[in-house]
Design goal:
Elements lengths: L1 E9 L2 E9 L8 E5 L6 H8 L8 E5 L1 E2 L2 E2 L5 H7 L4 E4 L13 H12 L4 H14 L16 H13 L5 E5 L7 H18 L2 E5 L3 H7 L2 E6 L2 E7 H6 L4 H8 L49 E4 L2 E3 L8
Parallel strand pairs: 3-9, 3-10, 7-8, 8-9
Antiparallel strand pairs: 1-2, 1-4, 5-6, 10-11, 11-13, 12-13
Helix pairs in contact: 5-6
The chain binds adenosine-5'-triphosphate (ATP), iron/sulfur cluster and magnesium ion.
Magnesium ion binds next to α1.
């Protein structure tokens, strides 16, 4: 991805939700994406597959297996979605059509993209359900007959059904209990390794991401502010925001009188602070932070951050 930028058209003008984001995911690897609510994670996911409708705009370049996405339109864009790149939307498990059985919803994208026979289609759906640890008999069930975790797994199976090269999963584990969350992310890691699918997994749970992802990227105010190997980012965060996010994770073992939080709120897109977007909340901010945005700088191997005063340890 090069220079991906997404702007929403609002009554008071265009606002930038994704600001010049660059990264790449290797084949069969998982990139985790974290950041507070409103930082632009879902907007980035939608922009990657050009899913923002005009008058909103997406610019930059996104390559999936060598094919550029942002320049595509109409039939070629439809052909790419599901087949080469698919997405599990935020709250996907609540988006099943309640009056259709699981199988008819699973079959839709396969039928739209292939001339598969009914027999092969049934076999494919059974295999997919087994791959996400669901008994194939549930394909005849209605969505309300499945638990939340099962529905989320069906959503992932659907996104994997045409063996895409890229899978984007926007908070695939939100609203599930911690055990199911972990199972789902471990399942995604297995699918990624087995099928060589590159994945972008969005989550608020940095410790869960560090367990399953190869790399982690942190966003703030629409910009990438840190990226690197998952363990590096979690163990030795360079950017003050990442450090504070990690300190906000409650621990069962550490005695604290109160939860640590990052003071203030993420900025509104309509009034983004000048310079480093994080400066009004940053304990290390100096005058220079308030003028020009810091550039992403590689500080340690492939570990990079956008900060004038990185916490190099
Ligand atoms: N259609 C839209 N029109 C205008 N602004 C929007 C639109 N959709 C999202 N935004 C704004 O873009 C910013 C980023 O939103 P986005 O949904 O990408 O955040 P997020 O990081 O996914 O948050 P969450 O963790 O809550 O899902 C927010 O400030 C939001 O208000
Ligand atoms: S650039 Fe300045 S304000 Fe921004 S995170 Fe770094 S120290 Fe804080
Ligand atoms: Mg979101």
């Amino acid at each position: 991805m090069r220079g991906l930028t997404a702007k929403y058209a609002t009554r008071s003008g265009a606002v930038t939700a994704v600001d010049n984001v660059n990264f790449s995911i290797e084949k069969g690897k998982i990139m985790g994406l974290a950041g507070e609510s409103g930082c632009g994670k879902s907007s980035l996911a939608l922009a990657m597959l050009k899913l923002l409708e005009p008058p909103n705009t997406v610019s930059g370049e996104v390559y999936v297996g060598g094919q550029e996405v942002i320049g595509l339109d109409g039939a070629s864009l439809r052909d790419l979605r599901w087949r080469k790149a698919s997405i599990v939307f935020q709250s996907a498990m609540n988006a099943f059509d309640p009056v259709h059985k699981v199988q008819s919803q699973m079959a839709e994208a396969i039928r739209a993209h292939t001339n598969i026979s009914t027999r092969d289609l049934n076999r494919t759906m059974d295999d997919l359900l087994r791959a996400v640890r669901i008994d194939p008999k549930y394909k005849k069930a209605y969505p309300h007959e499945l638990s939340g975790g099962m529905k989320q797994r069906v959503a992932i199976a659907m996104a994997m059904e045409l063996r895409p090269q890229l899978l984007i999963a926007d908070e695939p584990t939100t609203a599930l209990d911690v055990v199911t969350q972990r199972q789902i992310l471990i399942l995604m890691k297995r699918l990624s390794r087995e099928h060589g699918t590159s994945m972008l997994v969005i989550s608020h749970d940095l410790s869960l991401l560090s367990e399953v992802c190869d790399e982690i990227m942190i966003m703030y105010g629409g910009r990438t502010i840190e990226i690197g190997g998952a363990e590096e980012v979690v163990r030795r965060p360079l950017h003050p925001y990442t450090g504070l996010l990690l300190e906000s994770i409650p621990s069962l073992y550490e005695k604290r009188s109160s939860l640590r939080v990052i003071k203030g709120y993420p900025p509104s897109l309509a009034s983004l602070p000048r310079g480093c977007h994080f400066h009004p909340r940053c304990p290390y901010a100096t005058d220079e932070c308030t003028v020009t945005p810091p550039a992403m700088t590689t500080l340690d191997g492939s570990h990079a951050a956008a900060c004038y005063h990185p916490r190099v340890q």
